[in-house]
Specification:
Elements: H1 3-12, E1 17-18, H2 20-29, E2 37-40, H3 43-53, E3 57-62, E4 75-79, H4 82-94, E5 102-107, E6 114-123, E7 127-134, H5 137-140, E8 145-149, H6 154-162, H7 181-197, E9 201-211, E10 216-218, E11 221-225
Antiparallel strand pairs: 1-11, 2-5, 3-4, 3-5, 6-7, 6-9, 7-8, 9-10, 9-11
Helix pairs in contact: 3-4, 6-7
The chain binds adenosine-5'-diphosphate (ADP) and magnesium ion.
Length: 232
């Protein structure tokens, strides 16, 4: 199935929230890098997935009613042995949820220069709007973010990145390496292209995206679709 068909099927079936796993699959399809990931429904499957992906591993509980995963202990980072995987599985399965539980087994991404947030919301008047910021306190406390209405040009993407106050963090602040600005520009353009083509995407939250000297990788994502239109 192509992306348009996949999204349409989901909207028709009444699914409006894509899981982290599904959201990252979609990002991968449009050429945005994500850590290797597999879904497991038992301990055996989890171990098989770990063997395929290789240590270090991250395990996360996927359940429809667990949204802010780290707040409920649903993210287990940097697991390095089978014993740690075994314990993590037991702990994740103890987290209360009324919905079906699955485990996302994914590769632990290496430490970034900094975490980024890339988002998209739908403005009732102007349509899809893209958002960019540097993760952590810069976004949460200082609201240091930039916005543009989609579709954006390459020039717009560059402006979005340069106009945030935290830009020096990406530009080799205090001897740290310079971030791959071009990779961010390309990612913003890919998201712009996606949401312009697919009107049934209502919201996207790539949080965080790890940025490096070369390339970037999105380690958590959430996509929300528009409700099925029942008026037509
Ligand atoms: P939440 O639902 O709480 O936002 P996340 O999936 O974003 O959960 O995980 C919490 C944090 O764990 C992330 O902000 C990131 O710093 C780290 N993290 C998540 N997945 C990975 C990964 N695959 N590799 C490295 N770090 C990760
Ligand atoms: Mg997150």
């Amino acid at each position: 199935m192509n992306i348009a068909e996949e999204l349409k099927t989901k909207v028709e079936s009444g699914q409006t929230v894509l899981t982290e796993f599904e959201s990252k699959e979609l990002l991968e399809e449009i050429g945005i890098q994500v850590p290797s990931q597999k879904l497991a429904t038992s301990k055996e499957e989890t171990i098989a997935a770990v063997e395929e992906i290789g240590f270090p591993i991250v395990m996360k509980l996927m359940a429809e009613d667990v949204v802010h995963k780290s707040d409920t202990g649903a993210v287990k980072l940097n697991l390095k042995t089978k014993e740690e995987v075994d314990n993590a599985y037991d702990e994740l399965m103890k987290i209360p949820s009324q919905k079906e539980k699955k485990i996302s087994v994914q590769k632990m991404a290496k430490e970034p220069i900094t975490e980024l947030i890339i988002g998209m919301t739908t403005d009732p008047q102007f349509g899809p709007a893209l958002m960019f910021g540097i993760g952590g306190i810069l976004v949460e406390l200082l609201e240091d973010v930039s916005f543009r209405i989609a579709p954006i040009t390459e020039y717009d993407a560059k402006e979005m990145i340069h106009e945030i106050k935290g830009f020096p963090i990406l530009d080799g602040y205090r001897g740290k390496p310079k971030a791959d600005i071009n990779a961010i520009v390309e990612t913003l353009m890919k998201i712009s292209d996606l949401v312009t083509k697919h009107e049934n995407i209502n919201e996207m939250d790539l949080n965080p995206v790890f940025i490096y000297e070369k390339g970037l990788i999105c380690v958590d994502a959430r996509i929300i679709l528009k409700e099925k239109d029942t008026t037509s």
